[in-house]
Amino acid sequence: xxxxxxxxxxxxxxxxxxxxxxxxxxxxxxxxxxxxxxxxxxxxxxxxxxxxxxxxxxxxxxxxxxxxxxxxxxxxxxxxxxxxxxxxxxxxxxxxxxxxxxxxxxxxxxxxxxxxxxxxxxxxxxxxxxxxxxxxxxxx
Length: 140
Fold this sequence. Notes:
Elements: H1 2-12, E1 19-22, E2 37-40, E3 58-59, E4 74-75, E5 85-92, E6 95-103, E7 112-117, E8 123-128, E9 134-136
Parallel strand pairs: 5-9
Antiparallel strand pairs: 1-2, 3-4, 5-6, 6-7, 7-8, 8-9
């Protein structure tokens, strides 16, 4: 009977979660490596749970030593810099229009950015591709 009660007590206790913390202070726009992170056996709301989701990503803000790393604090490494001239592509239903644009933001693949079309001077939203092209659609 005591073994049964002990087993129930173990099952009833809350599971300890892990949180990812910065091992040292990292400046914004730094690619995160395994040496930059430490995992602690403490649950911090909003903190990343696995270093695998953080390693190889780029810091969007400064990360301070001992502070939790949140998934929104990092993103894909930038392929487009602010003020960079980028190919701007509108592709829909067999119609493809290509123009040059000036990126108004810094971004990585999959992120949405504002780009000024150099021909019309109109600012549009688009999604960055891995090769640096920015695709614009009506929904963007």
